[in-house]
Please model this.
Amino acid sequence: MNPVLSARGLDKRFGAVVAASGIDIDVPAGQKVSLIGSNGAGKTTFINMVTGYLKPDKGAITLDGESVVGLSPRAIARRGICRSFQIPQLCVELTALENMLVACAASEPTGLAAWSAPEEGGRQDRAEELLRRFGLSQYGPRPVSELPGGVRKLLDIAMALTRKPRLLLLDEPTSGVSAEEKFPAMDRVMEALSGEAATIVFVEHDMEIVSAYADRVIAFYSGSVIADGAPAEVLGQDEVRRYVTGSAA
Model:
């Protein structure tokens, strides 16, 4: 059986900077995989290549055995790879519910048409159901500009689910969330995603979150994968402690 996501020999350079070098990663269906590494290690570059925001200089990326290299981000999202962003991509002038309605409409094969109201065709029910699952119903009528950072994060992830993706990529889901809120926020995300068939890959800097929620950890350093395995195994490796967590003796 093909893995949901397969990356083979991915290379990406920006001038003299090596952002990805010979990356080989397979992600089976149903796994929760965390990508770790210091800033500039190549985690977000990998996410951007998988989702079409960057084209690799070399290598292959397949979703369920079908290549997605060269496709636009929109086309890749239609194939079943969706993402949230480190900085939530929201329309701050609209309410949380209106953002969800637009996302629901845009997720349909025909997209959002000027002659079709966003709340038509069951979109209202789908938008409200996703807000409920993420504990955001109370924020539905409020403009995004008034919402705290943690709520914006959850809304951005909820919007990514409107396409019912096979693979969901989360870029630092707890960044900007206070220490006392990070575990409740991640619990909410995982609980909301439990009703979906999506495989989850998330970039994270907080090792407590990584240890608690990942089935598997892939560590990046200088554009390369330096470790791949169970959380305790990877986080205990000397190279990871030296270059990623900063906890080497």
Summary: The two ends are 42 Å apart (CA to CA). The CA atoms of residues 209 and 237 lie 18 Å apart.
